[in-house]
Amino acid sequence: MKKRQMVIKQRSRNSNTSSSWTTTSSSSSSSAISNVRYVECQKNHAANIGGYAVDGCREFMAAGVEGTVDALRCAACGCHRNFHRKEVDTEVVCEYSPPDA
């Protein structure tokens, strides 16, 4: 019996996606891997005077190591990570065996 594989890639800006999942049965198995990146800063620095101005920061770079408070602050612009637009890339791999005829 020959197994086949199908790969599906999806890019989403939705923050409500799970990071990974796996299912397995006797004839098929599936797994999904999500990679999250934070891109341009969307903080409005002129909101207090009724205007609109962003700082031009194009990508979040953590100011500290993972697990510290500085890991949530951008080294380039000083803003919290939540001000940066979140992109989620999801890859789903399904392996299955076609039914015997």
UniProtKB/TrEMBL annotation:
Keyword Zinc-finger set for record: yes
Region (Disordered): 1-32
GO cellular component: nucleus
A Pfam family reported for this protein in Swiss-Prot or TrEMBL: ZF-HD_dimer
Top-rank taxon: Eukaryota
ZF-HD dimerization-type domain boundaries: 38-87
Compositional bias segments (type: Low complexity): 13-31
Keywords, alphabetical: Metal-binding, Zinc, Zinc-finger
Basic residues composition-biased segments: 1-12
InterPro entries: ZF_HD_homeobox_Cys/His_dimer
Single GO MF descriptor: zinc ion binding
GO terms under biological process: regulation of developmental process
Protein name as catalogued: ZF-HD dimerization-type domain-containing protein
Organism, as annotated: Capsella rubella
